[in-house]
Amino acid sequence: MKRWFSKEKLLYPFYILTHPADGYYELRHRERGSVPIALIITALFSFCYSMNRIHASFIVNDVDPRSVDSMNELVGIMLLFFLFCIGNWSVTCLMGGEGRFKDIVTSVGYALLPLILTFVPATLISQFGAADEEAVY
Q1: Hey, where are the domains in the chain?
Q2: What integer pLDDT is reported at residue 4 of this predicted model?
Q3: Are 119 and 48 in contact (CB under 8 A)?
Q4: Environment class of residue 49 by beta-carbon count within 10 Å: exposed (0-12), middle (13-18) or buried (19+)?
Q5: Contact, 56 vs 123, CB < 8 A?
Q6: Closest CA to 55 of 126, 134, 133
């Protein structure tokens, strides 16, 4: 348990955010990533995406908030996440690459972190924008 959730592993997605080339290299070659953290980031992305669809202003959101089901959103995002990872792994296997499924899941999960960090402010900002400011959103 400690090897999956150490302080270094918890802060590593933010290192990748600021140093993507070095971060993804170390993720692949030095085993610095954590699959459980990547899956937690994916679940957080699903939560933030659902909250954005529910709470974004009606000016920028054309979805009826009463029709959003967070569990369906979670299942859909996790399904797409794993289908993308399986497809990526399949292509690397067919092309003779060395892509490991663990590395693909970890890197795709870590790549969702910027979306989490932008959905929250975007949802809050959408409450204060006028119709003419929709392009800023």
Answers
A1: 11-133
A2: 67
A3: yes
A4: buried
A5: yes
A6: 126
Interhelix angle 35-55/7-18, rounded to 10 degrees, is 60
The Cα-based distances of 121 to 4, 56, 127 in angstroms read 29, 10, 10
CA distance from start to end of the chain: 40
> pLDDT of 54-110, one tens digit each?
877 767 677 777 777 878 888 999 999 999 999 999 998 888 777 889 999 999 999
User: What is the spatial distance between Cα 87 and Cα 79, in angstroms, rounded to a whole number?
Assistant: 12
**Residue keyed to tokens 């090897």:** 3
Identify the residue whose tokens are 């140093």: 19
Report residue 66: phi and psi, to 5°: -70, -15
Cα(84)–Cα(90) distance, rounded to whole angstroms?
A: 10
Burial call 64-78: b when 16+ CB within 10 Å, e when fewer: eeeebeeeebbeebe
**Hey, is 25 helix, strand or coil?**
helix
State whether the Cα torsion 5-31-15-53 is positive or negative: negative
